[in-house]
Amino acid sequence: MSLKKHLVEATALITVGNPAFTALEMMCGMPHQTSINARIYGTGLIYLGLASLITKGRKYSLNYWNIDFERKKYLLDIHDALYSMSVSLATAPLFYWAMGGKNLKEIALGTSVSASLGLFLGMPSLYAVDAFNDFADIEPSNRLPEIIKNSSKKTKKTIMGIAALTSLGLTAAIYALTLYKN
């Protein structure tokens, strides 16, 4: 896997994941510092190689289950949701403990939030990976609507940049709006 592909896929994953995880962690009453640590270190781990493991694991899983998503696109969505939930269940307990989870309740909360989000964010997160790969001219995606598939390279890169910046702004806004609640 090229460095460009890895960076694009990592950016796609955090673009979808960070605002959603932040919002749910704040709604569940997780302390700000634990959540912020999780976002910082999680983003770091994604860029340091976890994104590659996730996307390679996805390809392996698709092959293992012999999913023909070209004919039945809904199978890819179902697969991505279940795959993402499984990855979250396997990694979240250790991750939240390492990020400062101080007791079993906090770690269990983080894990349940992560698994729930994994189920609901699996499809959009991995759709974003496919879309960002297309936008960065790495690998075309059959999942995109025709109007986007046929857009110029400049338009696709602009969409990718706006999505990433919006994600960062939304994550910061969630912390700012919940600062005095937690």
Could you walk me through the main structural features you see in this protein, from its secondary elements to its overall organization?
It is a single chain. This protein is 80% helix and 0% strand. The protein has 6 helices and no strands. It is an all-alpha fold and 182 residues long. The termini are far apart.
Number of strands: 0
Instruction: Assign an overall shape.
Output: globular
Q: Roughly what percent helix?
A: over 70%
Number of helices: 6
Order of helices and strands: HHHHHH
Strand residue percentage? under 5%
Quick one: biggest sheet? none
Our measurement of the CA-to-CA distance between the termini, rounded to an integer number of angstroms, reads 41 Å
| Unreliable parts | none
**Overall pLDDT:** 91
CA-atom Rg in angstroms = 17 Å
Structural class: mainly alpha
Based on the model shown, name its key terms:
182 residues, mainly alpha, 80% helix
Task: Describe the SSE topology.
Blueprint: H1 3-27, H2 32-64, H3 73-98, H4 104-135, H5 146-149, H6 153-178
Helix pairs in contact: 1-2, 1-4, 1-6, 2-3, 3-4
How would you concisely characterize the structure shown here?
It contains 6 helices and no strands. It is mostly helical and 182 residues long.
